[in-house]
Here is the input.
Amino acid sequence: MENNDYLWTKDGEADPEVARLESLLSPYAFEAHTLTDARVRWNRAPPEQARRPARAHTRRRLRFAATAAVVTLIVVVGWLNLRLQWPTAQAWTVKPVSGTTTIDDRILNGRSLLPPGGVLRTGEHSSVQIEVARIGRVVVGQDSQVALVETRSGHHRLRLDHGELSARIWAPPATFGVQTPLANVLDIGCEFTLHVTSAGSGLLRVSHGWVELEKYGLQSLIPEGAQAELDSKSGPGTPFDDHATAQFRSALKAIDALGRSVPADDPAIEQLVIASSAKDAITLISLLTRYPQLADTPIYDRAIAVIPPPDGLTRDAVRNKNSALMDDWWHTLPYSRVKSWWLRWPDLLQDETQ
Amino acid sequence: MEAARAGDNEALSELYRRFAPVVHGILLSYVSAAEADDLTHEVFETVITHLSDLKSSAAFPGWIVAIARRRALNVVRRPIVEVAMDEQWADQRHSPENIAAAEQALIALSSLPSAYKETLMLRLVEGLTGPEIAERTGMSEGSVRVNLHRGMSHLRAALRIGVSEASDGK
Here is the structure.
């Protein structure tokens, strides 16, 4: 028999079958984990299985080695699995490093806990270290305000209202994220520093791995050795290399401020091209991806000069947003691929010894 | 809505927060979970690009649903059995048995007529209530109510008698 109220408004006694289906299907709902860009999955090719013929007299030794390997694997997988588990809504440990810090207006004296909903504030010359469940650490800098939004296995979210934090995370992509007034920052197995003002402007710098910047569904992937500005008016900026010149960054800021309406004859385009060098290839390709109309400007010519495009990529392909060709071009950039997060296992050992 | 059409970041964020589950649910009625995630962002890119072309704010819910549906249908159709979820997108807290049961339910849902499966996806997967579905898709509450109840009856039958028979028209 139908329970009309429950199916319609979720009020009243739950229909057992509807409730069962809700429980089964809710993990497939849209939420932050879905913001992981498809490009994160670039390098998820299965590992190659090397096949080498074993001689008969080595079979026993190989069998022993295989057994030992399986046992080791079980131990390691169990340990790694434990690292990734975290009870829903369990508070995180906070350790003062210097100065005065408060959680919900209570001054920290030694180790303390940051519960979901708790607001942590650091004062002048203060900093604290937060254990992010069991997957990494965040160091919050001076004059900052952060809040723990949500924490459970596979999903941990902080909010940085203003100030600065540095994060080092060991977990699958998008397990850890930071909300800012302007955009969401999703960790893709990496180390990064984020600075924001209360108005939402700021800067993201990635020192290892990759980070995704997201704002109403539009993403920027920022690789190791690159940065992106957050602008309170134009949103997350186009990524640029750590070594980009001030002139290049100034022109890029002007283009991002105009966004999709940037005209082909805007003077900032010429300024950007003149100031560009090979290291700026990531910005040139990103600009052509974000604003395809720039295919008709010298940015396209400069981009194909500094990094050869894949076969078939033309102005038309850029203009028509041919995502397959643009992805192929993006893949030729001289950055490490999005790392399989488990390959950063040395981080774990480093954590254990600290 | 007017602020979003004027390009206001906060308003666009709010629009995204409210309508992303709707777009995702519609897409999930036709494509795999991984494709739905990717296409959700593509749909919003289209929406944001053309938002200023929309003549009436009231038309927005129906407009965005139509874009999502069209985008899904433009994707190469797969046989129904391939609608099964990619395990990498499943919640780690769920057992293999639950994942298998969820896949079976999604396959059964995908075998229903479009109006029923879209509405039930929004209710059972995205967790929206009937009134929320009506508000965010532009459908009348009456239509949503009918789709939910008739769709649920069809879904119960499909789950009971097996997906293959259901997709063959019972």
